[in-house]
Structure formats: structure tokens, C-alpha cells
Target: ABC transporter ATP-binding protein
Amino acid sequence: MTQPEATDGTAAGQTQEHSPREALALLAQAAAPERRGLVKGLGWLAVAAALEAIGPILGKHFIDNHVLPRQFDLGAMAGLLAAMLLSGWVASLTRYSQLRRMAAVARRSVLRLREQVYAHVMAQPMTFFDRSITGQLLSRITNDTDAVNNLYRQVLFVMLDSSIVVLGALVAMAWLDWRLMLIVLALVPASSGIIWLYQRASSGPVQRARALRADLNAQMAESMAGMAMLQSAGATARFAQRYEAVNQAQLGARVQELRANAWLLRPALDLLNVLLIVTVIFGFGQRELSGVEVGLLYAFLAYIARVVEPLIQITMQFSQLQQALVAASRVRALLREPVPATQQQASLTVPHGAIHFDHVSFGYKPDQPVLQNLDLKIEAGSFVGIAGHTGSGKSTLLALLLRFYSPGAGRILVDGQPLAQLPDEAFHQAVGLVPQEPYLVAGTVRDNIRMGRAISDERLEAAAKAARAYDFLSALPQGWDSRLGDGGLAVSTGQKQLIALARALAGDPRILLLDEATANIDSATEAQVSEALRALRGQVTVVAIAHRLSTIREADQIVVLNHGRLSERGTHEALMAIDGGIYQRLVQLQALED
Ligand SMILES: Nc1ncnc2c1ncn2[C@@H]1O[C@H](COP(=O)(O)OP(=O)(O)OP(=O)(O)O)[C@@H](O)[C@H]1O
Model:
């Protein structure tokens, strides 16, 4: 099948809106089943912040009531000190246990989210994958959901926890002296201003680094998928150079981002801290410094120390937070991609396997018809070969039968029932496919034919016999327990193709589709495939696209497509009798090639 063209990086329908609201909605949705646990956790964090806020007030009492008036009431002083220590410890313990609880909620939420995204992508129609670039899709499922994990950690731990601490300290300060509290409160807009400046300086590099990273992933996935082509074309060095260049650019963008952090963000926040302390001390200097004010000064300095660190924490996480928000909104956009509604009827089955293309038209793009008004009846149990020039629509016809796409006009009937209405299970049971590129999984011969289906060993062997694969499989070093696929035995393309045929037949299909299954195999194996197809006559409807016309020579009916229209139809002999016909010319061309 012709490879789809990738025009842009995003799957269609994926608007690139990166609003924080979208991202937060995603978090809320993924954590929804654990809302109670989260609310409880937040409640306990508030208790911890309140306990922490008590410390400096106790310290103030200690100074004002005991140290300055020189009232060394040992019992009361020990009580105050113990209360300070205890409240600190209990606060730390509470905070630690709640943060652990939230980390677990985050892990479980991301797990759920990843499963949801995967299932959603799997449910997409083929047109979605035509529009997406595999590497970017992979990156979306793995990296972006990882980034959502980060977002959880940051939103829940840094942002919420730090905000609660800041709030607790501000309330305590207001209670002590609201005017001084207002001075400290100025810290919030001042640090927001710094964040804004920082964002402006770093958003370019942040976006660039992110885009380049996605590019790196996409390049890697594409290179792996096309390794044979790259190596045979001697293009590996060039691709490595391209990868290196993007890698360098990504590093450059990251360094720029870190520079903005090191030269702007941290020094500015430190300066702010110093300014604040100076202002508060100056504020005290303006008053008549009575004894009582010393305790207050102590409490305020203690609170400032507590407020500044969480605020710095919030701001320092900002660039990561930005990335995580972008990733989360992308995941949400992916989840918004609509899954087409099916009108399947549970009662339908495929008892025979007769196919009727009832005036079917189809185009991948609305204005470019690929199949035009195709009217074709295929009897149950018959063998039909599809031939035609390259690009004539053969693979497209098969893609429609496989329900990868739906006809634009007309309909496809199987045993008189609309193909679209067959329930998935009945459809997969009824239709077997042998693709052009046979595909082996890492596992034994049995695993490779069974493919996780509940099929008895006897049935597997019968399928292997029908596919003419039994003899060579049994002769492998460990017979049917030999390992194939990644890290397993190397078998020839022809042998892989016989395994693929056995796999398709093991499911006992009513309809068997072959997509250029004999294009890359030797003549001896092709003869075996032809023999197998002959033997299926009367039992299974076979629709075979064959570039190699000898495979379909004995078909009951050969259908020739030309620019998406049915142009000739008949047995090999009948079509060869059409002088100047497309089929005749294709056969002659092939004879010349051979
Ligand atoms: N996924 C796709 N998206 C857009 N256009 C496509 C897609 N697949 C095929 N086409 C276009 O549809 C037309 C028919 O292609 P198709 O693959 O069905 O032809 P074919 O007869 O099977 O060709 P070949 O023998 O080369 O496999 C071509 O013009 C092709 O470019």
C-alpha cells in the first residue's frame, strides 16, 4: 500500500492550544477516581502548614515573655520549647506522609492516563494514522504522559504544598502585625514580575528545546523503521550527521534556557529576599523599639525565611511547569480526537464469505477519487485475483475490505450484510490477511501462528499443513518450539510468508486476503502458496492482489483495475484473449522481466 504522506507534525484535529486550563482539566480527570484521597491529603497539608506557622509565634512568646523581662520560669520555658519542637516534628511527619500519598495518587493517575491514551489511539481509524507521524505519536504517548507525571509532582507537591505554607505564614503574620504582613505580601507581585521577565527571556529556548526533542524522537523512530533502506542507500552517515546537528541545536537551546535561569532568575530572587529583610528591619527601625518588638522582629524574620523558600521553589519550577503544561494539553487534545461511532449489530456473523462491492467509490481526499463506482460480486468460496498497474487502487480495495476506511459512496456487503455493521469479533474471525511484509513476533513457532488466540495445537498444525508450512517448521532444530522473531532463528522471507499464511488460516477465516503476498518470495515458495490457495477453493473466499501474475493465474476470476475503475474481468484465458487488453500487456511485460 502506498505510504501516506506526512505533511505536518500533528494529527489532524489536534489544535495546538496549550492553555493551562486544558492541562489542569486533564489532571483532574485522571485523578478523579481518587478525589477523596486527594482532598484528605490537602487537608492534612493545611494542618501541617498551620503547625509550622505556630513555631515563630511560640518563639515570640519565648522572647517577649521570658528572655526580655528576664522571667526564667523554667517549666513554662521548657513547655514552650517542647511545643516548638513538637509542632515542627509533627508538621514534618504529616507533610512527609501526605506527600507520599500524593506521589502514589500521581503514579496511579498517570498509569490510568497512559492506558486511556493507548486505548484511544488504538481505537482511531486508519485515516488518523495517515495524518500522524509515528515518531511524534510515540513521543506523545510516552514522553508527554511522563511530562504529565511531572506536572502532578509539581502541581501537587511544589505548587500546592508551597502555596499552603506561604498562606499559613501570611495568616500568622497578619495576626501578629498586618502592616508588616503587607510589606511581606509585596513579595508575591515582585516575584511574579521576576517570573514574567524570566519567562520572556526563556520561552523561546524552552519552546525550541521541546520542538527539537520531539524532532529527535521522530528521527530516531523513522531511522529504526527504515534501517534496511538507510543502510542499503549508504545514507546512515548522512542521517547520523542530521541527528547530530539537531542534537547540538537542542543542547544549545537547553543551555540558553539554563543561562536565563542562572543569570536572571536566581540572582533576582536572592536580591528580592535581601531587599525584603532590609525593608522589614527598616520598618522596625522607624518605630520606637520597645522590648516587645524584638520578639515580633524574630517572628517576622522566621516567617520571611519560610515564605521565601517556597516562593523560590514555585518560580524555579516554572520552566519545567511550562513544558509539562504544553505536554498535558497535547495529551488532552489527543484524547479529544473523536473515535468514530460504530453501528455494529451484535447478532451478525459471516457464515459463507460472499462479498459484494455495491457501486463503491472512495478517495483518501474528497477531491481525489481512487476507486470509482466499483461494482463487483465475489461468490463465497471463490478465488479472485486483483491485477492492475501501480496506483490503480488494488491495495485501496483491500483496505476497504479490511475496514481501514469506509467507502465514500456505495457499500460493501458480506453475505448480504453491510460490512460496517459486523461486530469486531465476527469480522476478525471471518477475515484473515496475509500482508506483503510478513511479520514475526518474538516467540515460538506456535506463538507465531496462534498469535494469542484460543486455538488448539491440532488446529495450528492443520493450518500449517494447509499453508504448506508444516514440513519445514517441523524440521527446525527445536521443531514447533523453535524461537522466531527478534533474537530467534532466521528464516527466509518465503518461509515467513508461509507462516503468515498459516497464521491467517489458523483463525479458520471465511475470507482470506492476500496483499502482494508473493511479491518478494522465490518461485518454489510461490508454487507452494498457489497450491495452498487452490486447495482452499470452495472453502474460503480468497481475494489476492498479485503483482506476480502467476499467483492468480488459476483464479476463478481476475479483476483488472484501471485508475480505480473495473476495466476487465474474467479467467486468465479469457483476459489473455482480449487483444491489447491491460491484463494481456501486464502478463507480456512480466514475461519480458522474467
Ligand atoms: N493512505 C493513503 N493516503 C492518501 N493517498 C493514498 C493512500 N494510499 C494510497 N493512496 C493513493 O491512492 C491511489 C491508489 O493507491 P493503491 O495503493 O490503492 O494502488 P495499488 O494499485 O495498490 O498500487 P501498488 O501496486 O503500487 O501497491 C494512489 O494514487 C495512491 O497515491
Notes: The chain has two domains: 20-335, 355-593. Confidence is low (pLDDT under 50) at residues 1-16. The first helix runs from residue 20 to 31. The two ends are 24 Å apart (CA to CA).
